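Key result, reporting period 2: structure in, sequence out.
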């Protein structure tokens, strides 16, 4: 079993951060990932941990980098 962490960089507005988490979770669920857990940092960023579908575990390119899903303009 493989896991992938997703970091969402967002502003101080918690409602918008919650929306960004929801959007990212929905996006990755549609790709077959399973959201395992998430954490919100003191810097108003969220770290999402997804279980990678077995079909994608062979594709190492998909497991690298930081996703930019869920970025929301907070101004």
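The corresponding designed sequence is given below.
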């Amino acid at each position: 079993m493989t896991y992938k962490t997703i970091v969402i960089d967002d502003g101080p507005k918690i409602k918008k951060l919650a929306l960004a988490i929801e959007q990212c979770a929905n996006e990755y669920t549609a790709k077959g990932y399973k959201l395992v857990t998430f954490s919100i940092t003191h810097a108003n960023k969220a770290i999402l941990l997804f279980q990678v579908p077995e079909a994608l575990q062979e594709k190492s390119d998909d497991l690298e980098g930081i996703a930019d899903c869920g970025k929301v303009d907070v101004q």
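The radius of gyration is 12 Å. Residues 7 and 47 are 4 Å apart (CA to CA). This case is discussed further under Risks and Mitigation.
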